[in-house]
């Protein structure tokens, strides 16, 4: 299960369903010498953070093994952070793990058509990345 969580982390890093967080300043904010006036929309671009080479080596490579070394990263925030952190993050992780377990143990699958990942604005594949799935014998629970 530990490696499954690494696969989930890496999937959320590269293909997160929430690429940006939106906030509005309620008062003037001094951030590292920059004055951000009250009422400004501030966007945290999570997808860009997740592809920052100073935070993730070879950021465009799907590499679940990188998570064996990373214990905590402030540059990985698919579920947001702070007071508005996703309340469903743990159930989401469990749901993905259950789905992956059933897919891997009970089905064989093959790629029907390859495609390039595009961000517009959510990450998806140009072809939709269709796969063909076959059950492989008796179902594991
Ligand atoms: C992979 C799946 C999910 C991702 C990537 C995700 C991502 C996020 C993010 C980034 C936020 C913060 C939005 C912000 O700061 O503006 C958020 C908030 C929230 N999420 Fe999720 N979420 C996921 C699944 C779920 C699930 C399964 C539930 C419910 C069972 C859920 C319920 C919520 C709620 C209620 C908030 C608002 C929290 C607040 O504003 O106090 N999410 N989610």
UniProtKB/TrEMBL annotation:
* Cofactor(s) recorded in Swiss-Prot or TrEMBL: heme
**SUPFAM superfamilies, alphabetized:** Cytochrome P450 (SSF48264)
Q: Which UniProt keywords apply?
A: Heme, Iron, Lipid biosynthesis, Lipid metabolism, Membrane, Metal-binding, Monooxygenase, Oxidoreductase, Steroid biosynthesis, Transmembrane, Transmembrane helix
Report the membrane topology from the UniProt record. Single-pass membrane protein
User: Which GO biological-process labels does this protein carry?
Assistant: brassinosteroid biosynthetic process; brassinosteroid homeostasis; sterol metabolic process
Binding-site residues, heme: 86
The protein's location, in the record's own words, is: Membrane
Q: Which Pfam families match?
A: p450
This protein's record includes keyword Transmembrane helix:
yes
GO MF assignments: heme binding; iron ion binding; monooxygenase activity; oxidoreductase activity, acting on paired donors, with incorporation or reduction of molecular oxygen
Keyword match Transmembrane helix: yes
Single GO cellular component term? membrane
Q: Which domain of life is it from?
A: Eukaryota
Family indicated by similarity = Belongs to the cytochrome P450 family.
Give the protein name, as stated in the record: Cytochrome P450 family protein
């Amino acid at each position: 299960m530990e490696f499954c969580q690494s696969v989930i982390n890496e999937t959320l890093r590269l293909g997160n369903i929430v690429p940006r967080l939106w906030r509005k300043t309620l008062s003037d904010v001094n951030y590292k010498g920059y004055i951000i006036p009250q009422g400004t929309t501030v966007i945290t671009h999570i997808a860009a953070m997740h592809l920052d080479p100073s935070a993730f080596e070879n950021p465009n490579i799907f590499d679940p093994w990188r998570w064996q070394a990373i214990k905590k990263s402030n540059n990985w925030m698919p579920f947001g952070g702070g007071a508005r952190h996703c309340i469903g993050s743990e159930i989401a992780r469990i749901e993905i793990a259950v789905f992956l377990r059933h897919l891997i143990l009970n089905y064989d699958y093959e790629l029907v058509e390859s495609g390039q990942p595009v961000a517009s604005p959510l990450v998806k594949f140009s072809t939709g990345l269709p796969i063909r799935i076959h059950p492989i014998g008796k179902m594991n629970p």
